[in-house]
């Protein structure tokens, strides 16, 4: 009811009423008034440069130090510890989110306050730079609402990113007194550094009852699958250092370790690896003799050699990410940024956003016990895959690690997808880098099905006024055994189709559809009358195809239901002199298109042509009254990534009394126009989707030395 | 007319004013209108001192996250073992990886005891494991153990409940606290709570259980399996019900449910509400109160009316004619309905909160099902209506793919479970989610071959890569007497003449050593000779020397021209996942004998393409002289084949099946065809073949099985299409007929192993575009293919 989804228009293109001349003057006057108004509006827009920018306009200007102070009494309630059994269906109040056509949750942010204890000592730093960025990002996003009553998710402004800088009990008390706390239901906390000495818990120690936790460094024992969100530990270097993406190819080192203060046991295992494999393994550590003023975080040393960090990460194919006291490490972000494939050695660690990200494509996870075998494990990965992992690693950083904004939005999206699963973002959208999204093809008809023969096909004949030829086509086509219905698209608005009694009597239902406008795209409209999957588009002058040829074409289509299966084939060529595409209809050894003057295809492509044709191609074709077939070839090839199938031998598609496709094709200007179409479409699609092949389909026994009467399709190729 | 104009004028004026007032932020900014701005959205403040805020952590602290006072990693891991047990088991604490390192992933099943009753389903599970390529009868080399005690039904009210399991288990010397054991379960707990309790202590064993709830599920350790009935087929399995893709989905109903309504007890909340969404038109949701013995006791006012309505619709009819099917929880979280809907291509709408979906570790259910919430039942109709037809099409196809890849038989369910566990043993050598959720599915993708999608023939399009531009020619030499014969020299010349040839490999399977390198012809491409064993399935061994995706398998006696090789290879590049070849056979069902047959006669269909086989070349020479024209098969011609299929052939199929192939003559190319058809569900591609000359290839005159009545002239006598297998007469045909019947046996044994007939028929052949057209030969690219 509230769906935004496309409704299938069953009636066909509508006719725009014509304007009557005598009223034109009034309309022109009215129009000019409106125009004047618009111009005036435009002037206002360009005028007020002195006025403050819009963002400042709606936002208060204050200092963090001016926020209200809240005193927490010592006996104010403390929430219960986090409930390990919480799941969305048990601890989350989904009724707050409601059903809405946008399928977006509403997120409310509590206003910032400074919490102090009874003695006036601050409970924590009011807010860190990162948490401020995160909240800003949420408030600027589509998820944000300032209406607490409409909110589905609540984000406290109490900063718990780093457990080390806060007082656990008092922070918990501060949470408990939030206006909508209600045992933490629908509250989301962000934490990146959980735990503290001596046990370093893998989840935030602040009691939080039912609140969701977006945490960096979950282990499999503290992570509540499907409830918590595992997030990265943000590395502030991301904002500081600009590492341009490095192309694929071999790098100087094979394995690199850049972490400081590793446990001596890990250290010795890494050193053993280095001793075994020499120069290809580089183990860096803290620099001991740096001159003053050089930030230690930006340098690493090996013996006396000094390296720039994180730049040095780009010199290696694999970069080790070992666990420290905590499981989540900020170095993971640096490694991904450098396009280095992380080798993650941290047993039980839940990788960031693992609910949606496929880390197998971007990293290598090695159990701690297997550290000594690391080198051989990594060597067994094929080079092509390594290059893809490098690209993938960089893409993960760009999309989900690079800023607090990216981290915040990915977290909210994950929660949003749980609440509106039917509108969730797909695996491909999460994981495919833009280059892959661009180059890969996901065929909408991907299931290998051979449709049952019994269904038959619907022949759609586009006609204008060549009634005699049309009737011949109808008679010929009706002889094909698998024909189940014949649809005549009457594209002539000035003339009525012949009376019912004059039409040829055929064994299958014949329907005539009258169109509102003489447009070529009417041929590809997904008429409700087409009940079969297979559609045979046929021109009203194609009378030379035999019944065997048509039936065979249908059988071939059944084996390739996701392709255009047609009779006359055409080719596109690159014209090196003119530096553009050229259309070719000569006797070539290759085909890349079939003409839809006689072609089988899936009805789904009608739907795509009518509703999903990229750019202005559809209107362009209708305006030029040409190239609808080339457009269809482009569309199908682009969406399936597959070539056309030309069936049966070459014929002269020419009849003496009509100007058939070939008749026209011989015309020079026609060829120029068709070439233009190809160039136009290629630029709209942004690529050349057509695939060139050197084969055509014939019956198994075609031209074999075998009695014709025993062949399924004897009458093929006769002129 | 005047009034109309006036109205139009007013409308325009009004719209002009509207534009002026609401025309954008910039307008409202104007001081004059600033009165209305008070209601602006209150965003997070831009603090004036935000650039002075401190970082959440000191950068150096972030990079030095170590604490020397902590336990050493080794000690920590040892300590874990004692802490994270039973309900907190994970692979790293409860599974002994070292057992799997020595012999790889091997699975042992406890010997079945006579007096031990075993249900049909559990017996199928055990059989599946024994049929798997991971099975081992030796416990000492096993990595994973499976009990022979039937643990499927742990409802102690059930007849199949086995008592005293704890005691029995403790008696097993191999039990070892359940370490490395896998326990299957379909039903746990009983009335009224139906908990996850199994009634015995599983210790550290992995649990593969149906109706798993997310709370007791140990992530990365347990496996959630689907509930399947006792009639679920052992192998093969029925295909899905989607025969055609229609957009929009032209089904009679949008959403259906027909099932029991629990009046009391667990699960009744959801089932009791289902009737609310029934609209009698496109949403049919019917419940009955009739179940159990005492339903009358709890009967409510709706029951009688519901029961009447209930009988009006047939469950199967609804299943066949609906786009979406509600799959609510029953007493337990999973139900048979789930697999039924999946098979019927009726997109499951799950209403089973807290259910860990089957194989969710591998399968992305959002691509095949709608995961609803029990609490939001009333939103389901509108949510489902809003799903775009294109997505419905994708969901429907995905249900079929998943059904066929992982669920349609007990074998598939069990093998998927095993593969998921195997993938955990070595994460770098495991399948990514992409591989699990894309055709042909994880079971047919061997991560030992590669984990890179670009290395598999079926992922080129989705992955955005293309098949290799070159091929490796692979020639197997068997019957050479130390020197090189003419045919093989000609063959090497012809192949190396192809512009697409990257390398030539010769597999030397003779007793004599190969001739020295000086004796081999000079070729433009590298020529390598490897020493082989003498086994028929050697042909498909995945030799590491093969460096291209495509392999052209050849026999020493193969005769072919460069243009045939070129054309076949160009065609293969368009169909990289299929077998592309020259001589074809066709299979058929022989109702008289009740078995499958095949024929190499000229038929209008084909389903097998010979992979350069012609086994008889490898027979001792004497047999080849049995008689004139006794050639049971058409000329052995080669075909380009993706390298991956060699791996699949050698590693996917269990050793027993490969032995069978080695034992039966020339079975290996039928097996290869069956295997590729099982992967692709598509027929092979036949390309046109040059007519053979009697004098150039004297042994290859016949084209009839068993050479029955083949005229000496070498002409092929036609036979009617689709005729049953030829009866073979005469002594001359004896050898051929034996081979023929062996191949028939082979086909039937393969069908038996797969559980269905994977072969698919095709009615077409691919020819060069201008093949036999009436144009000048000079215009044609492959004129040699037409030469008589």
TrEMBL record, chain A:
Source taxon at top rank: Eukaryota
Which subcellular locations apply to this protein? Answer: Endoplasmic reticulum membrane; Golgi apparatus, cis-Golgi network membrane
Look up the record and name the cofactor or cofactors this protein needs. Mn(2+)
Q: Name one GO biological process term.
A: heparan sulfate proteoglycan biosynthetic process
Domain Glycosyl transferase, by residue range, is: 457-702
Reactions catalysed, as given in the entry: 3-O-{[(1->4)-beta-D-GlcA-(1->4)-alpha-D-GlcNAc](n)-(1->4)-beta-D-GlcA-(1->3)-beta-D-Gal-(1->3)-beta-D-Gal-(1->4)-beta-D-Xyl}-L-seryl-[protein] + UDP-N-acetyl-alpha-D-glucosamine = 3-O-{alpha-D-GlcNAc-[(1->4)-beta-D-GlcA-(1->4)-alpha-D-GlcNAc](n)-(1->4)-beta-D-GlcA-(1->3)-beta-D-Gal-(1->3)-beta-D-Gal-(1->4)-beta-D-Xyl}-L-seryl-[protein] + UDP + H(+)
Transmembrane regions listed in the UniProt entry: 25-47
Q: Does the keyword Transport apply?
A: no
- Alphabetically list the UniProt keywords: Disulfide bond, Endoplasmic reticulum, Glycoprotein, Glycosyltransferase, Golgi apparatus, Manganese, Membrane, Metal-binding, Signal-anchor, Transferase, Transmembrane, Transmembrane helix
Q: Hey, which pathway is this one from?
A: Protein modification; protein glycosylation
Domain Exostosin GT47: start-end pairs: 102-381
InterPro entries according to UniProt: Exostosin, Exostosin_GT47, GT64_dom, Nucleotide-diphossugar_trans
The record's Gene Ontology cellular component field reads: endoplasmic reticulum membrane; Golgi apparatus
Q: EC annotation?
A: 2.4.1.224
Quaternary structure note: Part of the heparan sulfate polymerase, a dimeric complex composed of EXT1 and EXT2. Could also form homooligomeric complexes. Interacts with NDST1. Interacts with GALNT5.
Q: Which family does it belong to?
A: Belongs to the glycosyltransferase 47 family.
**Function of this protein?**
Glycosyltransferase forming with EXT1 the heterodimeric heparan sulfate polymerase which catalyzes the elongation of the heparan sulfate glycan backbone. Glycan backbone extension consists in the alternating transfer of (1->4)-beta-D-GlcA and (1->4)-alpha-D-GlcNAc residues from their respective UDP-sugar donors.
What is the designated name of this protein? Exostosin-2
Q: Tell me which species this is from.
A: Pachyramphus minor
TrEMBL record, chain B:
Q: Which Pfam families match?
A: Exostosin_GT47 (PF03016), Glyco_transf_64 (PF09258)
Q: Where this protein primarily resides, as one coarse class? A: endoplasmic reticulum
Q: Where is this region: Disordered?
A: 709-737
GO molecular function terms listed in the Swiss-Prot or TrEMBL record: glycosyltransferase activity
Keywords, A to Z, come to: Disulfide bond, Endoplasmic reticulum, Glycoprotein, Glycosyltransferase, Membrane, Signal-anchor, Transferase, Transmembrane, Transmembrane helix
What residue stretches are annotated with the Glycosyl transferase domain? Answer: 476-619, 643-771
GO biological process per UniProt: heparan sulfate proteoglycan biosynthetic process
Compositional bias of kind Low complexity: 725-736
**Keyword Aminoacyl-tRNA synthetase on entry:** no
Q: Carries keyword Transferase?
A: yes
Q: In which pathway does it act?
A: Protein modification; protein glycosylation
Task: List the record's Gene Ontology CC terms alphabetically.
Answer: endoplasmic reticulum membrane
Task: Indicate the segments forming the Exostosin GT47 domain, all copies.
Answer: 104-384
Q: How does it sit in the membrane?
A: Single-pass type II membrane protein
Q: Where in the cell is it found?
A: Endoplasmic reticulum membrane
**Protein family per UniProt:** Belongs to the glycosyltransferase 47 family.
Official protein name in the record: EXT1C protein
